[in-house]
Amino acid sequence: MTKSNSDLYKSVGYIVLALAITIILYYVNGLSLQDNFAFTTYSLLGLFCLCGSFKLCKSKKFIVALLVFEITYLSVYFLSILLSLNTSLFDFIKGVAFSFVVFSLLACIKYVFNRITSGANSYILKSILSILYFVFVFVGLSFPLLMICYYVATGSLISSDIILALAQTNSSEGKEFFVSNFNYKWVVSFVILVVIVAVNYLLLNRIGETSNVSDTKANKSNLKFAIFSLFVMIVSVFLALPRMDYLPYAVVKVTSRQLDNFESYKKQKGARLEKLKALTSLKLDNNLNDDGNLFILVIGESETRDRMGAYGFNRDNTPNLSKESSSKNTILFKNAYASWPQTVQVLSYALTQANQYSSIETVDAFSIMEIAKAAGYTTYWLSNQRKFGVYETPITVVASTADHEIWTNGSAKMEGVFFDEELLNRFPRIDPKKNNFIVIHLMGSHQKYEKRLPSEYKVFHGNDEINDYYDDTVLYTDHIVSEIYKKAKSYSSFMGMMYLSDHGEDPHIIGGHDPVNVNAQMLRIPAVVYVSDNYISRCKDIYSNLEANRDRYWSNDLLYELMVSLLRIEGAPHFNLNLDIASKEYSLDKNDVLTMYGKKHVTEYEK
Asked: What is the mean pLDDT of residues 395-421?
């Protein structure tokens, strides 16, 4: 046995040992990279893989390729520091270790490909392996590229919430988002992507060449070593993936978990309905009409109260609400906030028991639709938003529990087949002698603003076309909500209606409500309760509590509690009066009210 072969066998033995440690490390329950031992071992593994691949590919080209690759991978941490995000030295070192493993993997793949083609004259084989290697390099760079290119285009780092929002869109909505927010920065971003991939590919493509090609025995031995090392590293990486903490990969992991939660919510629907059937405590308050009651919940889209005339904005874009707000039948809440600046996350809380103040998980939470149905209401869901995206969300699951569903935009196109007024034409023919609960979900002020309203509502013409169109959508939504209210009042059984927006909007921020660039305008929302004279006389306690609390601070993840009280449903499980703004026991003041899924206080977003 030659000395060189002996050294190679020792190297293989070391790698097998590293693999064994890795298997133990990532299969021990509860052990993660936050543990010092796990972190140290993982870092040493990455360094060992790097040394092993350098042993195969030792050259200056290897060093140059490594430096460029490291700069690419670690740039996301420099960007996070630039944006004043929470990034520690610990996170940075974990990123270095992760990049070592990925680079070593690519280096070994290149070494193997070079050895395969060194004695071959087949152009087709060389071309296939070159294309395949380019794919490996592109995939290896995809994590940092995702962050870098999004930062160049938008000025922020992509988050799990942004990916989640994109995952719940379809091709039409994705196209519309891109068109609405396209500018020269996207072109620059694409150019940077091409340059980064090209430079890394060219440098990586040059490594792995050895001068000792005539030493057949050594080459065969090295090839076996490389293939074995490659196998070991692939297994190690896949074992490590569940606990990898490299910043871009961590974002993808969080997104994946959230999508799994959505799927779990869907699967648990049957179990929740069975639990409700077993509840004997659910009933309607005796003060309601004996011969039928009608309640309506209208959910707006992307409307901020900061650009509404009824809340003091300098344009008269809410003439109907401004007029109605002086009526005793209308309660305008002055300090309502969204729990998050994106629709799915907001409504996953607002329409269910889950909220920022309790430990109830969304997957286990009853929805307002389920509770109303179990209490004896005939339930309806009307929506002008798309029903189908790439993934089903809790919103569509909640809607599916209604007795009747109407989707005007069922084709999944976000361009909008109809304006919101089509919902008035599709208003259900209800039996006024029964108890009815109708939820109406508007398209509202969803981008692109100019596509959300008929031409006669494009009335504002200032120096900022984007703001003009946005304010036009607010005017149109005011008209739609007013018409729904009029239609509701035409029924003798009408008792009450609630209108609120899911979240606000800043028209000049990419996407309008990016949680990474969140500001007050994205969280400050309108919230209004309309009640009939009959409701005021029959439900004096609820009405007086709402009146007394109209200036209190409130977040819309507590909509469930408000609607349960408004509908006069008694015996709802785990109901907390301290979180119900329709109760005299409502206990939250402005220092208690939360947003951003409990991570912020709303006082941080006051004017």
From this structure: 74
